[in-house]
Amino acid sequence: MTPSSLVRVSVTFLVARDSVAELRRAFTDNFAPAISAQQGFLECLLLAATEGGDAPRLRLDITFRTEDERLAWVQSDLHDKVFEPMAALASSWHVDHLVLA
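Structure tokens predicted for ABM domain-containing protein (101 residues):
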């Protein structure tokens, strides 16, 4: 594995204040255990923005060794089962797909 093969995906969720705790629980109880068992998985963090905005922003940062391993996870039924409930708690969300420069 070379460092340039690492793939990071950041998912930013805009959530209502009363949904933040529920999204954190969904991450801790379901998403994190499921993704951490995947081949090529390296890291997954749920981060909270510390500045501005009416709706809280939570960012999910995920790192895999390779794009193929990340795609295998994203295309799995388990991914849908654990990601969709988190996405449903957000008023909107978007994905930034990054590789190490």
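Residues 15 and 90 are 4 Å apart (CA to CA).
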